[in-house]
Amino acid sequence: MADLRSRPPVMTLTDAAAERVRAIIARSDKPVAGLRVGIKNAGCAGMEYTMEFAEEAGRFDEVVEDKGVKVLIDPKAIMYLLGTQMDYKTDKLSAQFVFNNPNQTSACGCGESVAITPVKRDVADAHA
Fold it and tell me: What is the pLDDT of residues 14-52, one digit of tens each?
């Protein structure tokens, strides 16, 4: 019999992040199915978060809907993003999306790249 327990989403958005994503999507001249979030090997700390608008969900994307925003998570990034909260912060000199990731172990000085340790398999299995 299938496990009927609900599982927590891979990631969540703050109100500020959801509002900003909705505003950007509203200005798009193309249809947008959601915001695709992933990671890639880059930068001095080893990895960077990626974000792009997707016209359709990929076959293996993890789909998270939070605060009226659909987030499509690249399947290769799920183990690195479990428990992450995406925020949008503004200050006098910048405005940016910020990832509050419990799996992040360090970041470079410029803030462009991070080191992330994937979630251990037994914890990930609890999410499946």
Answer: 999 999 999 999 998 888 999 999 888 776 667 788 899
Q: Is 4 exposed, middle or buried (0-12, 13-18, 19+ CB in 10 A)?
A: exposed
The model's pTM is 0.75
* Angstrom distance (rounded) from CA 55 to CA 68: 17
Residues 25 and 35: their CA atoms lie apart, in Å, by 9
Report d(CA 117, CA 102) in Å as an integer: 9
Cβ-proximal residues to 7 (8 Å cutoff; 6+ apart), any chain: 126, 127, 128
CA distance 110 to 45: 10
Structural contact between residues 91 and 18, judged by C-beta atoms closer than 8 angstroms: no
Q: What is the CATH number of the domain that holds 27?
A: 2.60.300.12
State the amino acid at position 44 in one-letter form.
C
CA distance 14 to 20: 10
Locate 109 and state its tokens. Answer: 């000085």
Structure tokens at 71: 């987030």
* Residue 118: inside a domain: yes
